[in-house]
Design goal:
The chain is α/β, with parallel strands linked by helices. Helix 3 packs parallel to helix 6 and helix 5 packs across helix 13.
Length: 526
């Protein structure tokens, strides 16, 4: 097939006939010579609000492919490369017991899925509930503010991403086609096929829940097994080798392979690992607040009057303060909710969540400030305690509810006393507060300096009634669990994914799960 890039189609003329004509014109051949085509990438070019285009990259099947390639010397026309993910078992060490996967977020699930496909029959251990029960538990938490510390936005089948936006875009370079394999698995299990080619793919929390169930059922059909409500409370280590795990302080499960896909909020597990002598180090992360605007403001700024023809708009904003700190938007949720993402008693953390249609009235994003070991300490677990301290302050400030504040009051350091034009779209109970009392001065000052600068890029971003909520503290893992070139911390123990510090989101976590899968089947045979 021939890959054709940079095919621009006005959004008002986006149809199959128009695109086919654009492809034939670019290749200088009649459309009848095109047997079929498949979209490989699709993005929106909105730099000129009066001339917004879809930009396609397509793979085309034609008659006499070599001749057409010889005639067209453009960089936008080339032979379609082989992008198939291919990795087969080659290990020679006999595996006596099934591999254990700790955690059923994207890293753990995708590692388990691939192992199951190859006949390894993995055992997946999850501290939270299966997704159907988890949904009910979380909805009850939103309504009644009663937290289940093992099954919440952070913990449970599917991981934290199951209750976010299902965003799959990543800037990670991928020469091994792992990302494409991840997307293929998602689609095979019920995700919309468009994620294979959209520039900013997302699934949405509503669809993602069903996808997770389908992935689970596939693993079980291949001999895998899930244990829910099962927290790994200790490791079995003999002669500096991992030999299994202890569940809920009593049950012992033996294995020569333990994949730690625990997520970035498994603080008790980090402490257990540290006490066991597993090498880890503190990692920089970011802290801040969520900000909500009317979706219409964001959409019109990004697309002008053509917003009516386009999906809800996202944005990505960055700014460096005069003091040198970075401030940036994170986990932007078009047409979504702010959610109470707490996982520990008497602490508050927030996150963003969108359904597939992204059709809620507000769009929200985290505005976070980079912090480093100079801010919280260099010992491996200092970052965790820094997060906990601020989450406790958020809980106290909101009297157990999410503390929120209007931007005009935040910048003037005045407690908000009423809601303005922007009605908060929040899952979980909230209360008006003064968020200046929550964050350290250097974070408050950085956010206040950045918002007017962001307003230069998105008019209305600094609107008085924009709603801020706190605290956004779970941007990434505060630790790195060190591993060698075989991806082991010690023989048999594979720290992986976002919790171990090797990923940042659904896609990269799933890709790291594939990397661990590759290492396992390169060493062990069944």
């Amino acid at each position: 097939m021939i890959r054709v890039r940079q095919i621009k189609v006005p959004i008002t003329k986006d149809n199959k006939d128009y695109l086919l004509n654009k492809i034939s014109n670019k290749l200088h051949i009649p459309s009848l010579s095109i047997s079929k085509y498949k979209i490989n990438k699709l993005s929106i070019d909105a730099r000129d609000k009066t001339n917004i285009n879809y930009v396609y990259e397509v793979d085309v099947e034609v008659i006499d492919e070599d001749k057409i390639l010889r005639k067209n010397k453009s960089n936008d026309i080339l032979k379609t490369p082989n992008e198939e993910y291919a990795f087969k078992p080659s290990g020679d060490v006999k595996l006596s017991k099934r591999p254990i996967i700790v955690g059923s977020g994207p890293c753990g699930l995708f590692c388990a899925y691939m192992l199951a496909l190859e006949g390894y029959k993995p055992l997946i251990i999850e501290r939270g509930e299966k997704v159907e029960d988890r949904v009910k538990t979380i909805e009850d938490f939103f309504l009644n503010n009663k937290l289940n510390i093992n099954s919440n936005i952070q913990f449970g089948e599917g991981g934290a991403g199951t209750f976010s936006d299902g965003k799959l875009n990543t800037l990670t370079k991928d020469s091994n086609n792992r990302m494409k394999k991840v997307f293929e698995i998602f689609v095979e299990n019920g995700a919309p096929e468009e994620i294979m080619y959209l520039n900013k793919p997302h699934i949405g929390t509503d669809i993602l829940r069903n996808v997770i169930i389908n992935i689970r059922n596939k693993i079980i059909s291949l001999g895998g097994e899930f244990k829910y409500n099962s927290t790994v409370t200790d490791l079995i280590i003999e002669d500096n080798k991992c030999r299994g795990v202890i569940i809920n302080n009593k049950g012992t499960i033996s294995s020569d392979i333990v994949v730690l896909a625990i997520g970035h909020s498994a603080r008790d597990t980090f402490y257990m690992l540290y006490d066991k002598g597993i090498s880890m180090k503190a990692k920089n992360f970011a802290i801040g607040l969520r900000i909500e605007h009317p979706r219409s403001i964001i959409d019109k700024n990004q697309y002008g009057e053509m917003y009516k023809y386009l999906p809800p708009a996202s944005y990505k904003l960055t700014y460096q303060t005069k003091s040198g700190r970075g401030v940036y938007s994170f986990c932007m949720c078009p047409g979504g909710f702010v959610v109470n993402a707490s996982s520990e008693e008497k602490q508050i953390a927030v996150n963003g969540m969108s359904n597939y249609k992204r059709d809620e009235k507000n769009s929200n994003s985290a505005l976070v400030v980079t912090i480093s070991k100079e801010d919280f300490g260099s010992n491996p677990l200092d970052g965790i305690e820094y997060q906990r301290k601020l989450e406790r302050k958020a809980y106290e400030l909101g009297n157990g509810f999410i503390p929120i504040q209007l931007y005009k009051d935040y910048k003037n350091n005045i407690k908000s006393t009423s809601i303005g034009e922007v009605i908060p779209n929040i899952k979980g109970k909230y209360t008006l507060s003064n968020l200046n009392e929550l964050l350290p001065d250097y974070i408050n000052e950085s956010i206040k300096e950045a918002i007017p600068e962001f307003n230069k890029k998105i008019k209305g971003f600094s609107m008085d009634d924009a709603v801020l909520s706190g605290i956004e503290s779970r941007t990434s893992s505060p630790v790195v669990i060190e591993r060698n070139e075989d991806l082991e911390a010690i023989p048999g123990l594979y720290p992986s994914g976002e919790g171990a510090g090797f990923a940042g989101g659904i896609t990269t976590a799933a890709m790291d799960g594939l990397k661990v899968f590759e290492k396992i089947i390169s060493k062990y045979m069944i």
